[in-house]
């Protein structure tokens, strides 16, 4: 390990306005694209060195896609810019008076600060769940969950004890939002087409996929019609849906619900809640339910030069009184919009308020089973929604290479029902020596 | 974590002869293919759930290929067999008197036992090097080394201290065999075509790639002619070659050589030696220099029903007095050959002795820079050797899907000089909380 004192942010000073962006996701990358290299210095501070296409993360967790195929290195995206500076570091504080942000290895002055940190999992203060449940927010999480699922099947093949086997074959997904639904659907397809071939000694009728939510319907952000369609598809695929149901505790072995029910499970995935990734330093009153309150210019309440975009921002408008949905589109649009406003500023033009263009919502449950809410209160379902889903997701994946590989994988899977990435990769060497690889378990954090 | 006492190997009893294979590599997989499902029960015990195409592992470490593209799940390869039983578990002991092998979760009786465990890194007893150096034996290792290299460049971008920066940009590869040479060449190509674009703030003239070996030439298993060609290619690519040079110690910061020279480096890769992965239980006299002594039927000395194949076996013949080279071909051929002999046994036919068909050796240094030793003391170099290398490696990669993706990647890189997999994935969550992702360092073991 390197000593921190040898590192510093090491950003050259220029005469251009410096835009410091915290985060490297949809909003951050789209904003940077709209800031001309000749007019702005862009400093991007991120804890991940890649731009992840998070809507497909569940595919990585279920061995459908390689991790690398849904990620682009941030530096590669902007390798033609001369005054773009990526730094792989954690931000710890914002000082609006001094106009600086502080990182683990030093501070940097900003002219404009953009908070585009997205969300983190929200465990509502339950440390036990945080420790034992598997998250699904980054590639690390997805690779970890993939290994956990495959190891569970391996272990289930190696027990004669019915209770142990059942605990290994019970997968509990807490949260029936898009992540939970798509993960449950993908697991159900895997159970149907892949796992019985891979594990002929196991009876996959015993495998239970529980999808649990505290609300009274799946996919609550979508229309009741799409929720109903999704519910139907999930049941067709054999997912056990439990609504109006809250998780009380999870010790890594047993999920206990608030109503007293218990399910023994070695794998609980936590997709039940997110909170904006708030940075210390701004006053508490600009944060509401874990999101920065912003005006229609994405300015954080009370600041002219501090912005928040995407999931971490809440912009209340007449049409969206609770703010926009925490999905990719508002982040992409706000990033691009803020970029254009900063260019207007440079030209002394008036800023334009942001207006969200709702392109609709899509979710996939399985092959030829998808749902869509279109603008104008129309809904789609079935094969046509599935084709729309495929098209939209490939279209938005950045980079020629990723698209090609994702497409190749999909075409391959379409014809063969196969999944290639069923590889257990768990670089947890220190624990292996004690326990042997087969028993290593690393809950996501 | 699951308690071990709940697990057992859980293999059904049949009337067929049971072949227990320890390992899941070239020899093990090729052997299984030649054992008819209807005649044999095959039990494969392995610490990895995938069949890795190890000759391309350095490509994963240098972000050229995704980990999944050089690996196939073992279960997928044999999913059409009814009496094949894969178990993801570590073997701890062999008891030839009882005809059983013992694993972490119980024992199993064998009719034929095949040891196909390959090799592990040999640190010649130096625990400090083992702790701090990066290995390159499995996908875990390769992903870990890839992350380490990328993190080093990230950190080098964040320091004004010239000594720290130099330590981060010095990569020391101990061992100039095929792995060391191909890794050095690939890193040199990366330095030339990729890194200056990704890290415009760094001067890659400062990046030093040291290739160190205790012997007096690179690629000692190949002909002197090919060694000379390889040496020339490596120097063209700017690799610093140090021969007749032995590593004395490495503390994670400074490589000390036996002759007193020191190089500060945050990344030393250990490719300097391997030893057969010996299992406890057989008498010491059947092991010579970490390999099981076998006769021309691959029977371990003194046993009729215990075999060793591939790297972990040493079969001394007139033509190969020190045994065959520890590469893929002998393992593949011995696996297939043993399979045919076991079938002969079933039919009461006489066994055939193994004879190695040397197809030649290939190594790649960079684009259009490869060397080959062909049978009959001929050598190839340059573009034609490179094309031969491409052809052979794609040909031997198992599985339609892998080939397609590897080819797509190569074609893409051929035209663009790009590498897509520059993703830092390090599921080392527990250490992150203390130190922040940017400073996590996990040496391979």
Automatic annotation (TrEMBL), chains A, B:
Its EC number is 1.6.5.9. Keywords: FAD, Flavoprotein, Membrane, NAD, Oxidoreductase, Transit peptide, Transmembrane, Transmembrane helix. Residues 359-414 form the External alternative NADH-ubiquinone oxidoreductase-like C-terminal domain. The keyword Oxidoreductase applies. It holds the Pfam family Pyr_redox_2. GO terms for molecular function: NADH dehydrogenase (quinone) (non-electrogenic) activity. Belongs to the NADH dehydrogenase family. This is NADH:ubiquinone reductase (non-electrogenic). It comes from Hymenobacter mucosus. The lineage of its organism: Bacteria, Pseudomonadati, Bacteroidota, Cytophagia, Cytophagales.
């Amino acid at each position: 390990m390197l000593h921190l004192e040898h590192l510093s942010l090491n950003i050259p000073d220029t005469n251009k306005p410096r835009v410091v962006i915290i985060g490297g996701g949809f909003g951050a990358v789209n904003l940077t694209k709209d800031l001309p290299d000749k007019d702005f210095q862009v400093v991007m501070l991120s804890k991940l060195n890649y731009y992840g296409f998070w809507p497909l993360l569940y595919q990585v967790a279920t061995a459908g896609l390689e991790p690398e195929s849904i990620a682009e290195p941030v530096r590669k995206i902007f390798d033609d810019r001369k005054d773009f500076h990526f730094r792989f570091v954690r931000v710890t504080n914002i000082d609006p008076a001094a106009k600086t942000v502080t990182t683990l290895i030093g501070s940097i002055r900003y002219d404009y600060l953009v908070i585009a940190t997205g969300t983190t999992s929200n465990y509502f203060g339950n440390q036990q769940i945080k420790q034992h449940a598997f998250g699904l927010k980054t590639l690390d999480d997805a690779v970890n969950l993939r290994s956990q699922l495959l190891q569970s099947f391996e272990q289930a093949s190696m027990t004669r004890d019915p209770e142990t086997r059942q605990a290994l074959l019970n997968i509990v997904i807490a949260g029936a939002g898009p992540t939970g639904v798509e993960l449950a659907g993908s697991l159900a397809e895997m159970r149907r087409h892949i796992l019985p071939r891979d594990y002929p000694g196991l009876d996959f009728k015993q495998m239970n996929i529980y999808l649990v939510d505290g609300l009274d319907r799946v996919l609550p952000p979508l229309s009741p019609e799409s929720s109903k369609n999704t519910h139907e598809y999930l049941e067709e695929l054999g997912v056990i849906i439990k609504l109006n149901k809250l998780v009380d505790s999870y010790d890594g072995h047993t999920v206990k619900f608030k109503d007293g029910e218990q399910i023994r499970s070695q794998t609980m995935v936590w997709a039940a809640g997110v909170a904006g990734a708030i940075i210390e330093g701004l006053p508490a009153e600009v944060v509401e339910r874990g999101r920065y309150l912003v005006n229609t210019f994405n300015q954080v309440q009370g600041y002219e030069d501090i912005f928040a975009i995407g999931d971490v921002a809440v912009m209340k408008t007449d049409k969206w009184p609770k703010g926009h949905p925490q999905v990719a589109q508002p982040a992409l649009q706000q990033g691009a919009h803020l970029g254009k406003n900063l260019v207007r500023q440079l030209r002394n033009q008036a800023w334009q308020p942001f207006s969200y263009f709702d392109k609709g919502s899509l979710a996939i449950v399985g092959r030829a089973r998808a749902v869509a809410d279109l603008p104008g209160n129309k809904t789609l379902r079935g094969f046509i929604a599935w084709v729309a889903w495929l098209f939209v997701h490939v279209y938005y994946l950045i980079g020629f290479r990723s698209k090609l590989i994702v497409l190749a994988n999909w075409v391959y899977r379409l014809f063969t029902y196969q999944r290639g990435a069923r590889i257990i990769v768990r670089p947890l060497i220190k624990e292996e020596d004690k326990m042997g690889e087969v028993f290593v378990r690393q809950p996501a954090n």
